[in-house]
Specification:
The chain has 338 residues and is α/β, with parallel strands linked by helices. Helix content is 37%, strand content 15%. β1, α1 and β2 form a beta-alpha-beta unit. α2 crosses α3 and α8 crosses α9. The longest helix is centred in the first third of the chain and has 16 residues. It starts with a strand and ends in an 8-residue tail after the last strand.
């Protein structure tokens, strides 16, 4: 058997006699940076490696080596009688799961069986944020509880992945009548992805918006912010490096929404997964005005960010998130900025 999991914490627990077979930790952060339908394409991988180095500090050569190594294991899947995917309900995991389903949908499986262990809650845990929360005894109850992956799951996962890597994010919003039961966590996870786009209200995505709300409520430590924002937005499955990048971006001149009272570096890739340091942070006057909707952050400074396959640029980006209707909307870019 081959077990594909989302992180080292889960892998280490499974290795302690919970399952039999090989374990592959799938190392990617698909919610961050440019993502193509075929991530293994050399030209895309070079672009993505450069972006991850600039924004998260991940050495390009290390990223390339890890990607190629895990893809080699995947390419040799016929060596295994069964492959079990262990993934949670959040965006971080659902993007990985959908990519893998997309990849397997293009393969001749022959005699290899695919199975899935995917949960969004666990008895006794009020806020389930991931398999890493579970003890060894709790993990043991999940062993063998996986279900077969069939044609419907492969087709659905591939469709979600292609929509996620598309330049048109509206394809991630299936109609209410669309049957998404084969992957029950995907719809909510990708809806949370769309909420990261700059809003029609003030140009803030849900992470920036929630961060300013927490600062306004009196939270000051970056460590506490990460804990509170991460808990409220647990559907994103956001890591410390990702959140550190958001805070750094929000603090940059000439239009900072927050400032560090005691300047310190944000966590680096080499330190991860150490938590964010206890930086003391304050909201700026501009941050308050943007939070109240008096000003639009994108109108002021523009944007140059990737959201899956969508690249937003300039002061009039094509796509925005409408929180009132909970949907992504296409903006008329010829209308002058306010």
């Amino acid at each position: 058997m081959l077990h594909i999991v989302n992180g080292d914490s889960v892998a280490e627990k499974l290795r302690q006699g919970i399952v039999q077979g090989d374990i592959l930790v799938w190392r990617e952060v698909y919610p961050h940076g440019p993502v193509a339908a075929d991530p293994a394409a050399r030209d895309h991988r070079t672009v993505r490696a450069s972006y991850l180095e600039q924004t998260l500090g991940i050495p390009p050569q290390e990223y390339m080596q890890i990607s190629e190594a895990q893809e080699k294991v995947l390419a040799d899947f016929h060596h295994h009688e069964e492959i079990v995917c262990w993934f949670e309900h959040d965006l971080f995991d659902q993007t990985m799961l959908c990519y893998l389903l997309h990849w397997f949908s293009g393969q001749s499986l022959k005699h290899t069986k695919l199975s899935l262990l995917s949960i969004g809650e666990f008895p006794g845990i009020e806020l389930f944020r991931g398999l890493g929360q579970l003890s060894l005894e709790q993990m043991k109850t999940l062993s063998g509880a996986w279900v077969p992956i069939g044609a419907q799951e492969l087709e659905s996962g591939s469709a979600w992945w292609q929509a996620y890597t598309s330049a048109d994010p509206s394809s991630l919003q299936p109609s209410p009548s669309t049957d998404t039961s084969s992957l029950p966590f995907a719809r909510a996870a990708f809806q949370s992805h769309l909420s990261r786009f700059p809003s029609t209200h003030n140009g803030l995505g849900i992470v920036e918006q929630t961060t300013l709300e927490m600062l306004h409520a009196g939270i000051r430590s970056s460590h506490d912010l990460f804990d509170q924002v991460g808990g409220k937005l647990h559907l994103l499955g956001m890591g410390d490096l990702q959140y550190g990048y958001v805070l750094k971006k929000m603090s940059q001149a000439p239009y900072p929404l927050l400032q560090l009272k005691v300047p310190q570096d944000f966590p680096s890739y080499k330190e991860s997964p150490l938590p964010l340091r206890g930086n003391e942070i304050e909201i700026t006057d501009l941050g308050r005005r943007v939070l109240e909707g008096e000003m639009d952050w994108i109108d002021l400074q523009g944007i140059d960010e990737w959201y899956g396959g969508v690249h937003l640029q300039g002061v009039r980006p094509r796509w925005r998130w409408d929180a009132s209707s909970q949907c992504i909307v296409e903006v008329d870019r010829h209308t002058p900025a306010s």
